[in-house]
Each structure stands twice: as C-alpha cells, then as structure tokens.
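User: For my dataset I need records formatted as: sequence, then structure tokens, nothing else. Please produce one.
Assistant:
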Amino acid sequence: MSKSKPDMPSLADFFHILYRHRHKSVMVFVISVAVAIAALKWLPRVYESEAKLFVRVGRESVGLDPTATTGQRIDMFESRENEINSVLEILRSRALLEKVVDDVGVAKILDQSEPTEEEGVMARANLNPLGVVSTHILSKDEISAREQAIRALGDSVHMFAGKKSSVITVRSESRSPELAQDIAQAFVDRFMEEHLRVTRTEGSQEFFAEQAAYLEQQWNEAALKLTDAKNELGVVSISAQRDLIQKQLGDLTDQQTTTASEFAVASARVDKLKKTLEMIPQRLTAQETTGFPTAADTMREKLYELQIKEREYLSKCTDEHPMAKMLKQQVQEAQAILDKQPEERRQATTTINPAWQQLQLDYLKEQTNATSLSSKQEKIGEQYEAVQRRLRDLNAAEAKITQLEGRAVSLEGKYDAYMECIEQARIDRALARDSISNINVVQPATFVEKPTSPRRSILLAMGLAVGMFGALAITYLAEQFDHSLKSADEIERRLDLPVLLSVPKTADAKVPQG
C-alpha cells in the first residue's frame, strides 16, 4: 500500500527547485540589471524649466478697455475657472507656438545647423533634441522643418494650473537645460505680448475722441434749439413755469371767489339802501307861514280878464268865431289850473332830511364800491383767461421743449460717457505701452542642471524588481516544462509505486552497466 503524499511542494522543495535552475535565474537577473544600467547610460537626459504666471481674476479688458463697456451692458459673473482656461487657451494656441519657434530658432529646436524648407523628417520613431518621442512618420515632401519644430515644441511644452489656484505653470522639456530655459522664457515673453494684444482694442482712443467731438457738436446744437424755444415761450423750466402758472391760477381763483362774495354783499347793501331811500322823505318842512299871496290869486285875476274878453267878443260875434273859441278854451284851461290851486294861503320853508342825506351818501359809496368790485371781477376774469392761454401755450410747447431737453440731456450723458471712455482708452494705452496687465510673472524660466529623466533610483529599482520577478518566473516556467523524475517522493507521488532503493549521486559515481 502506497503512502499518501502532499500535493503542494514544501519550502525545501521550493529552494531545491531554485537551486536546480539557478543558472537560468541568475542569467535573467543579470540581464535585467544590465539592461537597467545600460538604459541609465544610454538614454538621453531630459531637463526641465518652469515659469509661473499669476492671474488676477477679473480681466483688465473689462475694467479698462472702453470698447468693452460701449452700449448696453449686461452684468455677467466671470468665474475663476473661465479666466484661467482663457489664459491656457492662449498659451496653447498655434500662433504662440509659431512665434516661439521663430524666436528660439528651428535649427536650435531640431538640432540642425542649416535647416531648409524641404528637409526630411525621421522615417521612424526617434528622439528629437527636446527629448520627446516623435510619432509623426512623414515623408520628406509632406512637412517642413519649421512645421516639425512646431510639432516637437507642442509636444515638449506643457501648461497647467493647480486646483483652486490662480497660478499657471509653463513647463518646458529639452535635452539641454539651456534650451529648456530659453523655450520657457520665450513662451512667457511672447504670451505677455499676445495677452496684451488680444485683451485690448487698437485705435479706441482716436475713435472715442472723434465720437466725443461729434457728440459735443450735436449737444451744442440741441442746447441752442432748447434755449431758443424757451426764450420764445419765456420760460426757464417747464416744471417751474407750470408750478408758477398753477399758483397764479390758484391766486386768481381765490381772488375771484373773494371779489364775487364782496360784490354780492355790496349789491345787497345798495339794494337795501335804495329801498330805504325810497321810504324816507328827501326834505323836511322847516317853517310854514299863512296869508301870503299865492299863484292862485294871480291865476284868478288872469281868469277874470279872459272872461271879460270872451264876453266882449261874444257881444260882437257869434260863438263860432275863431277868436271866441280860443278865448273860451283859454278860460277853461285857466279855470282848470285855478281849481287845482289850494284855497289856503300858506308859505312853507323846507330843508334836506339829514337821515336821507346820510343814506344817500352811504348809497353812493356802496354803489361806487359795487361798481369797483364789478370792474375788479372783470379784470380778474381777463387775467384768469390770460393765464389760461399761457398755460395752454405751455402745454402746447411742452412736448417740443421736453423733447429738446431730453435730447440735450441724452447727448450730454453720451458726451460724458465718451469722455470717460477717452480717459479709459488713454490709461489702457499707457498700460499697454508699459506692458502692464492682470498677469504677473511669479517665477521666470528656471535653469535646472539636474535632469528630470531618466531617474536613476527608479530605473535601478525597476531593473532589480524585473530581475527578481524574471528569475522567479523563469524558474517556474522551467520547472513546469521539465517532466523528469527528480526525487523518491516525486516518483511515489507521480507513479504511485514504492521506492525500494535510493542510490545517492556522487561526483565519481558511475551508472552500472547491464
């Protein structure tokens, strides 16, 4: 009966396997380390140079460029991310790459002494002087040396901003520290010029000066028209003139009411005094004397004479005689007058009634007052109509004056705005002349003599790790493909047969024959 053996090899078996394939393991380890050392020796050195830019949030173009505030303005919140991304877009633009290539030089970037326009490119992947593997496999006729330099430069320069930071880093990689520094500095210099160009408008000061002069002329014309219209109407201000007219109308209305009330009172007093005068006698008898001859005695004597004449003519002629008829009529008339005369012979002396005289004076005074108040009412009415006409004229001219005032005020506001824009444009031009913007260079391009690639410690660690894992892997693979029986335990486990005799292997042992 065979003994059961464990399927998994023990630690001693593991070391035994390593010892059995020691030559392969050592060879793989040595080759891996040798490759790492060779890479350290033969891989090109890559140097880095960094420049840092600080971006103040809030572009100066909005605050200083007057063309950014012309016309209607809409307030928009510009986030920090948008500001930083805008700067990064300018840094990564092809136009900036082309200008940097022209500043640094195509030959210096491509490590060529005399670059030509039709110079060929590498037919296979190769390392350019910037230390970047070029993946462009193009023929000689497809790309120029300048284009190759632009692409290589784009692959070797990186721009990025830290999270929640307003600092942008420009990193250049090259096979020499001098070239890396030159490229990074050229990027910063060219970017500052490009940023000043794209965030400002050329010719804005001249444009606003021209517009301001035109607006000043229009404003003066509008002010002159407004002055003529006010002089023609005789007003200084529509609102002030309207208030004055309203006050005058109010005063005249009050005067009309008061005068009408006073006239009614005066008229009533005149009527009352008139009625009183009619009731009171104008004269009073001061003295009366009787026995004095009166007019009746004279008329009686005259009547007697007429009667005598009438009788004389009747004695001579008939009643139908004209003279007789006339005398008869005169006698009748004289008789009628005599009949009306009082029989009593009295003589009375009269005098003015003092009460009537005082009432007459009061009546005349009140009548004069009433007449004066009536005239005053008519005069106030005329003044009221005149003020009403002036108000109607003011209302008719209000639209024109208001329009002229509005145009003058509007032109004045626009003129002031353009004058402010001129000042902003002047300041903007001065800032551009002195290369002042919202971006400051925090750190110029650095010169670092120590290469950043390849890293020796990492490369050696990787070589050792690859060698160790490669040695284990080759041992495992060699053991898996080796089907020979190497121990008594392996024979019993794989063949399920007992081992009766085991002969140890010695250096001078010979295999028995037959």
